[in-house]
Design brief:
It contains ten helices and 20 strands. With 393 residues, it is α/β, with parallel strands linked by helices. Strands 1-2-3-5-7-9-11-13-15-16-17-18 form a twelve-stranded parallel beta sheet. InterPro entries: F-box-like_dom_sf, F-box_AtFBL13-like, F-box_dom, FBL13/AtMIF1-like, LRR_dom_sf, LRR_FXL15/At3g58940/PEG3-like.
């Protein structure tokens, strides 16, 4: 009997240990880290668990609100922001899907700025193309020394009649936003002296014609256009002497692409750039170590330019234009080590289509010279700096 009681007592003790709320006994910094990793609505819901959890959500450094007429309203978000008072508001994400929410967005951003938010994401997403834009409060941008990341997406109107001041901003995403004028673009970018990463996604030139990016501190730049709306004209003027990474895609319908040389450039990917009369794209890339080029139309070759640092080249071959560009790049790249060629071409009158990746170097040489000799060997003789393994796709 004693043995049974002992066993039963231990079983009861183990059951009590299993029912013990050990999570609530964790240190507050660890609990806040846990709450930061779950959706904000779930973090707020923990306030009903116990006295310990009642106000814990108010100290969570990251908030993510998506509100529409069926869920939380802008009034609910405002009330929660007023109650929320952490030492530092690391990030605030606002996804607006109701028409009423756009009228209160200035108040919500003002509260976030007073809490010294470091990352702000504003997404005014809607499926109605006729939906009005939400205006970003320019009056709040005259001075801010805490915001480090700003991401604006979909139907956000940006009008900056004067220069802004985001002295700490290092990352800026402008995804399908609407600028009031070309001056607004300049006033925003010129007010970010520490900006390092800029992402620009656009629907061609439907807001401004000339998009000027003059940012001496910029290190990473991505520009991508959705040209499905067939809006021709306009272009880009870029001055970023500290640029290290460049990614351009879909600029098929523009008239201008002017870019100053980037002496610190490491890698550039160019895809879909149109036939621009005054382009200098290749001349601005001569300092790059890695290049990936896909030009659908003919471009200018910078006379006398040498790609002194280029070690890796990925090139899309399309018709004779591609061959000429390849010849120019090989002649201008004394340190080239890796060559990758992609695309499908059609040879002279034989009507044969061939994938460039299939013994492309041999095919190129025979196409140029009409020789039946080994193409790779001739290529190595012409460009001895290119290793044998890089000539075979």
């Amino acid at each position: 009997m004693k043995q049974k009681r002992k066993i039963g007592g231990e079983s009861l003790k183990n059951r009590d240990a299993m029912n013990e709320d050990r999570i609530s006994e964790l240190p507050e910094p660890l609990l806040l880290q846990i709450l930061s990793s779950v959706p904000t609505k779930d973090a707020i819901a923990t306030s009903v668990l116990s006295k310990r959890w009642r106000s814990l959500w108010k100290m969570v450094p990251k908030l993510d609100f998506g509100f529409n007429n069926k869920q939380a309203s802008s009034e609910d978000v405002y009330r929660l922001l007023i109650l929320h008072k952490p030492p530092v508001l690391e990030s605030l994400h606002l996804l607006i899907r109701d028409r009423n929410g756009r009228f209160d967005i200035g108040i919500l951003i003002a509260v976030a700025f007073t809490r010294h938010v470091r990352e702000l994401v504003l997404d005014h997403y809607n499926e109605d193309e006729d939906e009005k834009t939400v205006e970003f409060p320019s009056v709040l941008c005259s001075y801010n020394n805490t915001l480090e990341v700003l991401k604006l997406k979909h139907h956000v109107l940006l009008g900056f009649p004067s220069r802004v001041c985001f002295s700490a901003l290092r990352e800026l995403h402008l995804c399908h936003v609407v600028f009031e004028s070309e001056a607004s673009v300049c006033n925003l970018l010129s007010g970010c002296p520490r900006l390092q990463d800029l992402v620009v996604l656009r629907h061609s030139n439907f807001d401004v014609l000339t998009y000027t990016i003059d940012v001496p501190s910029l290190q990473r730049l991505t520009i991508e256009e959705d040209s499905s709306q067939d809006m021709y004209g306009g272009g880009y003027v870029i001055n970023a002497p500290s640029l290290k990474y460049l990614n351009i895609k879909g600029l098929c319908l523009i008239d201008i692409f002017l870019m100053e040389k980037a002496p610190e450039l490491v890698e550039a990917k160019i895809e879909g750039l149109s036939d621009i009369a005054n382009d200098n794209i290749l001349a601005s890339l001569t300092s790059a170590k890695r290049l990936s080029l896909h030009f659908p139309l003919k471009i200018k070759y910078p006379t006398g330019s040498i790609f002194h640092q280029l070690v890796s080249l990925k090139l899309h071959i399309n018709r004779i234009i591609g061959w000429n560009l390849l010849s120019f790049m090989l002649d201008s790249s004394p340190k080239l080590q890796i060559l990758k060629l992609t695309g499908t071409v059609r040879w002279g009158g034989n009507g044969i289509s061939r994938n460039v990746c299939q013994n492309v170097c041999c095919s190129i040489w025979r196409h140029w010279c009409g020789e039946a000799t080994d193409g790779n060997e001739n290529m190595r003789n012409k460009w001895p700096h290119t290793s044998s393994r890089t000539l075979d796709s």
